[in-house]
Every structure is written in C-alpha cells, then in structure tokens.
Amino acid sequence: MKIANVETYLLSDKLEESFFFSQWTYAERRICVVKVTTACGIVGWGEGYGPADVLEAGIEFLQPLLIGKNPLEQESIWFDLYRKSLDFARRGILVASISAIDLALWDIKGKHFGQPVSVLLGGRHRERVTPYATGLYFSEGEGLANRLALEAVNYVKQGFKAIKMKVGLTIERDLENVRAVRAAIGDKVKLMVDANHAYSLREATELARKIEQYDIGWFEEPVSPEFYHHYTSLRQKTTIPISGGECEYLRYGHHQLLKNESVDILQVDICSAGGLTEAKRIAALASTYGVEIIPHTWGTGIAFHAALHFIANLEPVPGRLYNPEFYIEYDRTSNGIRERLTCPSIEMEDGCINVPKAPGLGIEVNEDALAFYAGKNQNGLKVG
C-alpha cells in the first residue's frame, strides 16, 4: 500500500441566478477536489473548503510528502503535512489543503478494509442524521421577506424539520425577514439564523433580543471570529444559543472558542479545520467542555458524506437514555456540482438521512460529471 498519484480538479459551475449574503455574492460555484490513487489501484476522494485555486496550490505544495507513503498511516502523514506548513500557515488555506488530502486517505483506508469510515473512526452511535436546510439567501428586488417565506415553506414540504436563514442586511430588515419566515413555517419547524459575522456586538445584541420571540435554534457567527470575548459577552445577553467555528482551524483555534466559553454549539468544518483526523481530536476537546458539535458543511457530496460519518461517531450525552437529534447542514442553494458529482444521490427519508454503509466515504465520483465541471475550468490539473 503506497500512494502512487495525487490529482487535483478545479470544478466550476456558473449560476443562472446569483445570490448573496452579508459578505459576498455568489455567481459561480468553484470547488477543488483531490483524487489520491494507490499503487494497487485504490482511489480516495477528498475536498477542501476555501478558494479553489489556492487550495490546489496548497495540495501541490504538500504533494511531495505523499508519494510513496502508506495511506493507512494517515495520522503520521497528517503530522508531516502539518509540520511542513507550521511556520507560515498555522491557520487558513494550507490547513484546508491538508483537510482535503486527509479525507481522501480515510476514503482509501475504508475501501482497503471494506469498512465505512464511521466504523474506522471508532464506531457509530447512530445510523440516521437529521439534515437542516441551509438556504434563504438574499436576492435583489422587492418583496424579499415574502420570497424567503415561500422558499422556507418549500423546504418544509420537502420534509425538512429545520431551516437556517441568512441575516446581516440591517437589523430592521432581518427582523422583517425572520418574522415572515417564522409565520410561514409555523412553530413546529426549527429555525436558525446566520449573520456570517456581519455585526458588531451592540448590533448583534439588539438583533438577538428582537428575534428571541421567534424561537431561534441558534445565532450563527453573529460577530467577527477575531473577537472571542464578544461571543462570550453575547451569550450572556441573549437566550438564543450562539454558534461558530467555521472560521477556526485545527484543535488550537477551536480551543480558543471553548476555553473562552464563546459558543454553545461548535461548528467545525471538516474540510478546512484539518480533515477527519483533526476533527475527531476537536470533538474530544469539545466533549471535555460539554459543548455540542454541529459541523459546518458546504460543497459536494464528498464533504457531505465525510460529515455524515463524523456525526455518526460523535458521542451522545453520557447517562441519557434518549438523546436529541444530531443535525447535519444540507446546503440547498444552486449547485450542479453537488447534485451530479457523487453517487448514490443524497436521499432524505422521514426527515433523516442514513449514514452510508458502503466502504470508505460510501460514495463514488461520477467521472463524466468530473470531466464536465473540470472542463468548464479548462481541465483538471494533475499534480503528481
């Protein structure tokens, strides 16, 4: 078992209609995936979260450390990659590049042993996970609150038990939108809000207090991820649970959130924080603080299935017979790459999604779709 080849693919899909949130506008979905092949022909797939072109450069930088290594020794490989990047990338894109490689190695390991990744992580505590629909982004034109309400109702009709919407326009407009969505979906569906760190502490406090009456499941990234003490302060000023963590990297960054008591819910992104190898360490760290984990998930079926396996392995609350539902983020914005790249397709049944039982991540990549979306970007680029 030796790594023989590493290939990256820059995938691109222009959107028919752009959408935006408090930070940026999306007119194109652009994703970097990595394919790692062993000398005996086993293929593993991984994905990073971040600027795709920079991710590819990061993987290319790390690639010489992979060729000839035994992919089953993913922890020692992980440490070599981390040590290579430590002096100049303790946070950010190189960690996301490590994450993509790490997912591919776990996929290979599962296929080699004929076991799903969740079993190799230590076992499953659950076979089904509850998805929440991420959508309700902003779009131009009059009547935004009504459009968001109609979109939310559509998610409920699809069987979703929970929905997350964007905030971060202004306090007044956010309040109008939240009010409309809650009225449209009723009080049985969980509703969360995500500001993408749009607000100051004062503004976030004002908004939180005004929307408390709408039974908000959590307020995600209300303020800048740089201000841990603002998160801590906001938790003391509102009854809404505060969540964050998608902008943190490695166990060290997440430890800052935990030791400062900044969040009620930790949202580690497996595809940027260090892969499954590091996410499992972060989960152990969070459990010592009694903090719940609901991963941030964005991208293709590769990222989604990695999160499914991770959540299946998360320890339940000790000493409790009936545990609450464990949630996974399910992005519902326009993304042809997500819908076509991997198979089998993601299916929801009775408001839940089954954890894959097939070896590895439990998915295969549609090579035709890979070529199509890489072709839009003038071909996938081979780096090893």
Automatic annotation (TrEMBL):
Pfam families: MR_MLE_C, MR_MLE_N
A GO biological process held by the record: carbohydrate catabolic process
UniProt entry keywords in alphabetical sequence: Magnesium, Metal-binding
Mandelate racemase/muconate lactonizing enzyme C-terminal domain boundaries: 145-241
Protein name: Mandelate racemase/muconate lactonizing enzyme family protein
GO MF terms, alphabetically ordered: hydro-lyase activity; magnesium ion binding; racemase and epimerase activity
Cofactor(s) required for function per UniProt: Mg(2+)
Domain of life of the source: Bacteria
Gene3D superfamilies reported for this sequence: Enolase-like C-terminal domain, Enolase-like, N-terminal domain
TM region positions: none
